[in-house]
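Components:
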Amino acid sequence: MSAITPTGAYVGTDRLGRALTDAENRQLGKLLRDHDFPGASLVALRFASRLVRSREAARDLLGRTNLRLVRWGWDPAEVPLVKRLCRLVWSEHTHQLRETDAAKRAEQAFLREQEVTEGRAQASTPSREERVVRLEQEREDDARDARELERLRGKLDELRAHLRAEKDEVNLLYLDYVAREITDPARMARDSTRDVTEFYAAAKRRKRVVLKLLAAKSGVPENEEKD
Amino acid sequence: MAPVSRERRLWEKLVDEIIDEAASVSVAQAEADLAAAGFDVAAERARAEAFLAWLEGGGVDPK
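Structure:
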């Protein structure tokens, strides 16, 4: 399999299952240059800088995004380069947050295990505690979906609380409609007897609030000099 | 539809909006915003150029 398909898509090293040859590296370089990679990178860096707490973290996020692009590939016929990079920035960012969360859980599990081991060493107790730890881990596995639901509800509740505080009724309605799988602003306007332009105008406010919440999750202080 | 799927779909739609908006910014606007945030835009552009040069020079397996 060639890294660049006849239609001009770059396959990615994950799918290729191997490193790029020198010629393929050059082809990829040319493909990216043809699509103004430096310009797209600056747009992606701007997005990264709104998600993380420092300029250095934004650069790091973009660096990992570039490597992800090499691994996962890109089809110019499917999506513009700038959008591909921004999506990969988001993907890398959430991956990093999940890794941090997983590392915290692993650390807690390790500490629990350590407590059990040390307790048993001191008291020469049987492995009842070990069984409890195992059961706890199984319960944790079973609860993964519940946690995910909780996490998403937490985010959405936070968003709704913010919108309520701002008295942004149109965006509160928007969330309710989308949750009910109604995504057409015209239908939203009809059902709520509001003007459709109110729903279009609300989009800008909504995006600003969501981005602010996402940044807050990463510890980006609002209106504060980074670095 | 399961609650987790419904909540996920709603959240993903909101995130998609953010990504679409981020990607729709012009390069000139991105440069201005980055400069305002304290980035050295020329240096950041040079980093992107260096990545291209890295590829064009043969690169290495990123795995």
